[in-house]
Amino acid sequence: MNLSVSEENYIKSIYKLEEGQDSVTTNALAYELDTKPASVTDMAKKLKEKKLIAYEKYQGINLTPEGKKAALQIVRRHRLWECFLVEKLAFSWEEVHELAEELEHVRSEKLTNRLSEFLGNPAIDPHGDPIPDAQGKMGKPRTQTSLHKSQAKRLEVMAVSDKSAALLEFLTAKGIRLGTQLDVIERYAFDNSIEIKIRNQPAFTISEQVSKNIMVKAI
Amino acid sequence: MNLSVSEENYIKSIYKLEEGQDSVTTNALAYELDTKPASVTDMAKKLKEKKLIAYEKYQGINLTPEGKKAALQIVRRHRLWECFLVEKLAFSWEEVHELAEELEHVRSEKLTNRLSEFLGNPAIDPHGDPIPDAQGKMGKPRTQTSLHKSQAKRLEVMAVSDKSAALLEFLTAKGIRLGTQLDVIERYAFDNSIEIKIRNQPAFTISEQVSKNIMVKAI
DNA sequence: AATAATATTTAGGTAAATCTAAATAATAAT
DNA sequence: ATTATTATTTAGATTTACCTAAATATTATT
């Protein structure tokens, strides 16, 4: 199956949005891909034709097993390149997402597998996400909850689900990185903001938008 | 200046064909890019608009200084990725061209420079071609003559100008690689084939097409 | 120099991936 | 259960990078 860059981006986004949800809506996909719903409908028809997604008018989108396989290959490439950029080229974790976004579209199994080997077949990428192996097998689908949902009072940052440079820069500025341990001081119901504290630092408040994207586990 | 992948490929090919020639013809470029002359004319207008080439109807194509700068950046990326693939991922020299052809289009100066640094700022790529530095400065534009043109009787292989996998496989099979020293046994005028001999090996004959693409220097 | 051959350009068309605006379906609110 | 709102799809354009076929220039040949 030969996919265009655009088709690959759709498959990857569907895979991402499918997590948790039982199907992906046209609007959500359009927002995720920064495009218009009408364009999504067009592409949905094409991907259905190629048997990569299950799609019926107004019924939302799901990956077929084949589509999921394709998605996992793309995710594998993306996360391996992120490892490469951070470990070998000394990029910081908030810089690598956009570059990996381009590198992931070089579709060569041999290259992918050699790269993985070169990196010591890593199981997680610099953001804490698991890397699918050559067969598409992947460790547990990442951490338990978002900080937004977590009930815990003391927790550890396991991953960040949104890789926009803006968020990652914000987190870096605030001293939040992988493995950072935080205490939840207060949750404000009126705007869902959360006051948190990192050891040896003054407490500060983060918005719902931010807390939704910080993945944590209780400690 | 933001170039599409297609525009970059045109610029790169013009740069390649310009070497020696004083301008590049529509047909030559079409052949090089495996496209049609009409498409080249279309693109020539666009690249002229962007001031990357000098072009007047029926007059052939030349890079402007700006176009040449762009070309050297692309060539730099291409050759650095080739180094990476051969040195770090253990690809053989005949495998890397196609992959580098894709990787070269990731346009990030920071990535390029970090990659170069990671590789120890190499000055030549695995095919023997010099790698432009970050400023576009490049070592002497490679070897003197093709085997086809060379008058010398004993010579050394400095580079291969055509990177098609077919040719590179052929050369590998015959034991011809960078640095290989050969003796010219005979030149057959009727088809321009050449009988050559590598030390400790039986002599064999290569076609004009092959000899045109082997770059040598006399020793 | 006239003609033949070749090279190049123009005109008009196609496919992929997008878009806007309008139409229609599904969902939420009264 | 209507109506209003929101989501989705359709219809028709647009842009990029191609294409073919025909027209026109240039170059080579007699």
Topology:
The structure is a homodimer of 219-residue chains.
Chain A: H1 5-18, H2 26-32, H3 37-49, E1 53-55, E2 61-63, H4 65-88, H5 96-103, H6 109-118, E3 145-146, E4 154-160, H7 165-174, E5 181-188, E6 193-198, E7 204-206, H8 208-213, E8 214-218
Antiparallel strand pairs in A: 1-2, 3-8, 4-5, 4-8, 5-6, 6-7
Helix pairs in contact in A: 1-4, 2-3, 4-5
Chain A binds a DNA duplex (30 and 30 nucleotides) through residues 4, 6, 25-27, 35-43, 46, 57-58.
What is the helix/strand order of chain A? HHHEEHHHEEHEEEHE
- Cα distance, first to last residue of chain A? 44 Å
Radius of gyration of chain A over all CA atoms, rounded: 18 Å
> Outline of chain A, from the CA principal axes?
globular
CATH hierarchy class name of one domain in chain A:
Mainly Beta
Give the rounded overall mean pLDDT of chain A: 92
Pfam families (chains A, B): Fe_dep_repr_C, Fe_dep_repress, FeoA
InterPro entries (chains A, B): DtxR_MntR_Metal-Reg (IPR050536), Fe-transptr_FeoA-like (IPR007167), Fe_dep_repressor (IPR001367), Fe_dep_repressor_sf (IPR036421), FeoA_core_dom (IPR038157), HTH_DTXR (IPR022687), Iron_dep_repressor (IPR022689), WH-like_DNA-bd_sf (IPR036388)
Subunit structure (chains A, B): Homodimer.
Family (chains A, B): Belongs to the DtxR/MntR family.
Provide a descriptive summary of the structure in words.
- The structure is a homodimer.
- Chain A is α+β, with helices and mostly antiparallel strands.
- Among the domains of chain A are: about 5-65, Winged helix-like DNA-binding domain superfamily/Winged helix DNA-binding domain (Arc Repressor Mutant, subunit A), CATH 1.10.10; about 145-219, SH3 type barrels (Roll).
- The first copy, chain A, contains eight helices and eight strands.
- The first copy, chain A, has helices at about 5-20, 25-30, 35-50, 65-90, 95-105, 110-120, 165-175, 210-215; strands spanning about 55, 60-65, 145, 155-160, 180-190, 195-200, 205, 215-219.
- The first copy, chain A, has a six-stranded antiparallel beta sheet with strand order 3-8-4-5-6-7. A two-stranded antiparallel sheet of chain A has the order 1-2.
- In chain A, a hairpin with a 5-residue loop joins strand 1 and strand 2.
- In chain A, helix 1 (about 5-20) crosses helix 4.
- Chain A is globular.
- The mean pLDDT of chain A is about 90.
- The first copy, chain A, binds a DNA duplex (30 and 30 nucleotides) through helix 3.
- Chains A, B: Pfam families: Fe_dep_repr_C, Fe_dep_repress, FeoA.
- Chains A, B: GO terms for molecular function: DNA binding; DNA-binding transcription factor activity; protein dimerization activity; transition metal ion binding.
